[in-house]
Amino acid sequence: MKVLKEIYQYRQMIFSLVKKDLRGRYKGSVLGFLWTFINPLMQLVVYTFVFTYIMKAGIDRYYLYLFVALIPWIFFSSSITGGSSSIVAQKDLVKKIYFPREVIPISYVTSCFVNMMLCFLIIFPVMFFAKIPLNPLALCCLPVIMIVEYFLALGVAMLASAVTVYFRDLEHILGIFTMVWMYMTPIFYSMEMIPERFHFVYHINPMSSVISCYRDVLYYSRVPDLSSLLEAVVLGAIFLVVGMLVFGKLKKGFAEEL
Question: What pLDDT shows up at residue 67?
Answer without folding.
Answer: 84
